[in-house]
Amino acid sequence: MTESRRLAILAHEKFPDRAKTALGVMRYSDDDTVAVIDRDTAGSRVHDHTETVPDAPIVGAFEDINEEVDTLLIGIAPIGGGFDESWRPDVRAALEAGVDVVAGLHYFLNEDEEFATLAAEHGADIHDVREPHAGIGVAEGRSDEIDAEVVLTVGTDCSVGKMTATCELVTAAREAGIDAGFIPTGQTGIMIAGWGNPVDRVVSDFTAGAVGEMLLEKGDEHDVLFVEGQGSIVHPAYSAVTCGILHGSMADKLVLCHEAGREVVHGYEDTELPPVSEYVDLYESLANPVHETEVVAGALNTKDIEDDAAAREAVGAFSEQIGAPATDVVRFDAAEIVEEL
Amino acid sequence: MTESRRLAILAHEKFPDRAKTALGVMRYSDDDTVAVIDRDTAGSRVHDHTETVPDAPIVGAFEDINEEVDTLLIGIAPIGGGFDESWRPDVRAALEAGVDVVAGLHYFLNEDEEFATLAAEHGADIHDVREPHAGIGVAEGRSDEIDAEVVLTVGTDCSVGKMTATCELVTAAREAGIDAGFIPTGQTGIMIAGWGNPVDRVVSDFTAGAVGEMLLEKGDEHDVLFVEGQGSIVHPAYSAVTCGILHGSMADKLVLCHEAGREVVHGYEDTELPPVSEYVDLYESLANPVHETEVVAGALNTKDIEDDAAAREAVGAFSEQIGAPATDVVRFDAAEIVEEL
Question: How far is residue B264 from each of residues A185, A331, B273, measured CA to CA in Å?
């Protein structure tokens, strides 16, 4: 990971429940969050709303921050990934103060004339994490040449908790004394890590190549690399990205992520999920011709199960279905499966 | 398909053996090829070199063409997809004559200042077929709502003949009285059809969506739609595109394409191809959770087998391995498998 930054996180009207990126960055990045910017909850503190992340003051505007900040991070995304004009005064104020801006929107702030001019005038950088760099190309099929073991999270669907599982596994591995690295593939993961290729935004022919490039870059710096997976291999829209990451990572081990109770594809309710055990066969048989791999553990997201005992039971059933140890990495402890990896 | 055009096909120094796009368009499109432009073979005729396509004169430059032409098509591609400056006088002459230009290069002619200016001045269109249109988005998972039956060619590797098989099947189906349509997904296919989305060049998240959009557009115009496949589901670099087309097309039937004697992945010689029978399982098990499908026929490319009897034998063995009828659609006859579809 890069040097730690001092962040202001913009999350107007959405903190904390609809600010998934803000919470992810606060929870998992090495950066310090100096302040959250949310005009609705201004005046309160982060811990008044959630204790799952470090505390910080909440202010109404960038100009109300009293401490030193080096980066403004856009921690929310409206549907469609557009830029909300009500955020413009905060971005303008940050750039005028020479503060870098990081955003994961489909609307690239670098292409906004006012912002580009201000950034140039004040020596600030704008980092649109969803804009792939120009050097990404076709995969070379060399990800298996690196020293590090590669562990990839794969899912039964979108939004089952692959990014969270990956980050929790990195943390648990480090706590167990393992030199673990994180390979981000999506916008929140990239904001957490401070670097990375937005694999879902590259040219489709370069999907595997975008992953391979990151592994070749970091492959000799760590003993284990945890790759953030995306989508599902049987998703009606996003399976291409999943398949590209599977073959591009040439993963040695897979962790299958699932949400308890999920029965149909999120947003495609006509399409039923196949049985969990079938995913194990699908991922392994598809990966093996390129690089031998195995599902060695499972991560079950039990957030919709109220009772801890019932959650334990669900985890046990999931473990039996996939034929490997499993846990809920948030409710219980990722350390329970780290020894498998 | 669109109205038929009167084409000049540029193929400098490469006609016919290294001009795959030129030959594909001459063989399969509804367009008339008025002339081929190749400074090396200028003065001869197409049939002096190959009789697999309609005859036409070969000239040394666009300006040497005596007949009326409405479109100049770039029928060759250097490695890397760049523009060869030695072609500039021909493109310039075409645009100055108000003739449209079609190209499938990575270098977009629309972004070339001289060409863009000439096109505007003379009312000519430049069509860079590799540039996806801006409206392509995430797949809706509705390709199964169309009236037409969908047949997709899938492969054991790149460059085994999927595009050729698809075109031969369309032709054979039409000869059998079936109202068949062609859904192109790559640059040559798009040039043949005169329309289509370059699926390997769209944003990876939109891979399935780029296919679905075409099926929804053409789905009620034909009884059977033949979708051109790309790559292979276990390709180290291109599997993402293959997977996106598989799920985006929601194909009812699959035709498995293979090249006799191919044992390792083209360009990735360390990676062995799995047994042909395993591909049948892989494609079916991966497709089924989204849309039920089956490999109903095989197309074996036997171009490296000299003897017809040996080729027949290879086709027989291939058919047995995949558990479905097979043929070589070029050497023998696509009609042999059309009845399966």
Answer: 29, 46, 5
How far apart (Å, rounded) are the C-alpha atoms in residues B144 and B153? 17
Angle at A243 between CA A104 and CA A212, to 5 degrees: 70
Residue type, A285: S
Q: Does B80 touch chain A (CB under 8 A)?
A: no
Instruction: Write down how long chain A is.
Output: 341
Instruction: Give residues 234 to 253 of A whose Cβ lies within 8 Å of B.
Output: 234-244, 246-248, 250
Residue A75 lies in a domain: yes
Q: Does residue A133 fall inside a structural domain? A: no
- Answer yes or no: is the ipTM higher than 0.90: yes
CATH number at residue A164: 3.40.50.300
State whether residue A138 sits within 8 Å of chain B by CB.
yes
Residue B260: C-alpha distances to residues A317, B3, B304 (Å): 46, 37, 7
| Positive/negative CA dihedral, B335, B336, B339, B341 | negative
Q: Which domain holds residue A10?
A: 6-128
Residues B180 and B320 in one domain: yes
pTM for the structure as a whole: 0.94
Question: How many whole angstroms separate alpha carbon B260 and alpha carbon A86?
Answer: 62
Strands (DSSP E) found in A118-172: 126-128, 149-155
What is the domain count for chain A? 2
Residues B240, B201, single domain; the answer is: yes
What tens digit of pLDDT does each residue of B68-123 get?
A: 999 999 999 877 788 999 999 999 999 999 999 999 998 999 999 999 999 999 99
CA distance A117 to chain B (A): 25
